[in-house]
Design goal:
Order of helices and strands: HHHHHHEEEEEEEEEEEEHEE
Strand order of the largest sheet: 10-9-8-3-12-1-14
Largest sheet: 7 strands, antiparallel
Radius of gyration: 30 Å
Structural class: alpha+beta
Mean pLDDT: 74
Number of strands: 14
Distance between the termini: 78 Å
Strand content: 15-25%
Length: about 425
């Protein structure tokens, strides 16, 4: 009888070992567990510590492991809940699909993530705004976990969130564009859309900081991204330019848009919307406009790689020079000679202005990435331009406009990303 009881105890202990192994393997992947025989009336952990090295150290290790396992389980459950809620909310938006093409001329298969037009743009935008605010709240939970943990699960969740938010952003912005083209929007609709776009921008910034594993970055180490041709996605300088009798403007640019990359920047003043513009539209080469006068620039940039551009100009005889990647590619004269660049204007990035600070045309919008836009009220030397293109420590910063986050406001879903010149090169 005693033998039978002992055999039963061994079977019970082995069964418990197998249960622990199976349960743990499901949670933590490939691991190894060792079962040790112990008297049937003794506590398992106590027996293990008695048979394995210094008891005090082992006890501490076991307790720490237990605590870690519990924390990991709790974290995994929270992350699974986050994914379920995120997927559920996205599914509710995506389930509102357009019908098949019929008398109304709608194309089959296109998603209507902002609801049917008949419901009104105000209702659908309000619904999306609420959804995005929920995403933002869930992302705050992820940030809190990410600060204290650097695990594969956290990184996987961040990737999932990034992909879903990117997909949602494209659908939202595309749908807003369609609504604007098909229906006149009221002021209330525009306010609703601006709030949604502001939330999208905030989400992108938070995701960026998480991906880089830090909460802050140097104020000049960033780039702007314009993923779509729209008439509302842009950035704006917070202050105007002064009167200038000469200037140099330099920037990093990356685009493969065709035809034409669009308008990297435009400066408009009262009475003249084309006071200073850099633009490449349709199949035309890139051009610089000063007081609506044009010079064609010998730049070749729409290859999807980072390029450094510099243009210098002086009012005397309208002399100009164009540099790409630190090398002069062309020069000319008689470009708005003896016309100083006027003050009290608006500097916009990503759009061409037909009116002061507005009148944007989607066909002339910039598509791509740009960074380190700096402007000087003098002509830079060839050596200074080369230092800028090669990220030399002696490279000067713009004395009229310098590339810092505090000098720029972004609108309409344009996004900021961390950028290191030359390190991020191509």
């Amino acid at each position: 009888m005693t033998g039978n009881m002992e055999g039963f105890s061994w079977k019970l202990f082995l069964l418990s070992c197998l249960v622990v192994v199976e349960s743990s393997a499901q949670d933590f992947g490939q691991t190894q567990f060792i079962c040790t025989s112990v008297p049937k009336d003794m506590d398992l952990c106590t027996a293990t510590m008695q048979n394995s090295g210094p008891a005090e150290d082992l006890k501490t290790t076991v307790m720490q492991l237990r605590e870690t396992v519990l924390q990991q389980k709790e974290t995994i459950m929270n992350q699974k809940e986050t994914i379920r809620e995120l997927t559920s909310k996205l599914s509710r938006c995506e389930s509102q699909s357009l019908p098949a093409a019929g008398p109304g001329g709608r194309r089959p298969g296109s998603k209507n993530t902002m609801g049917d037009v008949s419901r009104g743009t105000t209702d659908t935008l309000a619904q999306l705004g609420q959804t995005l605010q929920t995403l933002k709240q869930r992302l705050e939970n992820l940030e809190q976990y990410s600060r204290g943990n650097n695990t594969v699960q956290a990184n996987s969740l961040k990737d999932l969130l990034q992909n879903k938010i990117d997909d949602m952003e494209k659908q939202v912005l595309s749908r807003v564009n369609t609504l604007e083209e098909t229906r006149p929007s009221s002021r209330n609709d525009t306010d609703q859309r601006n709030r949604v776009e502001s939330t999208l921008t905030s989400l992108h910034h938070r995701i960026t900081d998480l991906e880089k594993g830090k909460e802050t970055r140097p104020t000049d180490k960033f780039q702007l991204t314009f993923p779509l041709r729209t008439n509302y996605m842009y950035a704006k300088a917070k202050r105007s330019l002064p009167e200038m009798y000469s200037f140099s403007v330099c920037l990093w640019i990356k685009s493969n848009a065709s035809p034409g990359v669009g308008t990297p920047f435009s400066y408009a003043v009262p009475g003249q919307s084309n006071e200073l513009v850099l633009i490449e539209w349709s199949n035309n080469p890139m051009e610089i406009l000063i007081n609506d006068k044009v010079a064609k620039l010998p730049f070749l940039i729409n290859d999807g790689k980072w390029h450094h551009l510099c243009i210098t100009w002086t009012t005397r005889d309208g002399m100009w020079e164009a540099f790409q990647d630190g090398v002069m590619r062309g020069s000319g004269e008689n470009l708005a000679p003896y016309h100083p660049i006027k003050p009290d204007g608006v500097l916009v990035l990503g759009q061409e202005q037909d009116t002061l600070g507005g009148g944007f045309d989607a066909t002339q919008a910039y598509v791509g990435e740009l960074a380190n836009l700096n402007i000087w009220n003098r002509k830079l030397s060839i050596a200074e331009i080369y230092n800028l293109a090669t990220c030399n420590s002696k490279a000067p910063a713009g004395n009229v406009f310098s590339w810092t986050e505090s000098n720029i406001e972004i609108f309409g879903g344009a996004t900021k990303w961390t950028f290191e010149p030359c390190r991020s090169h191509n």
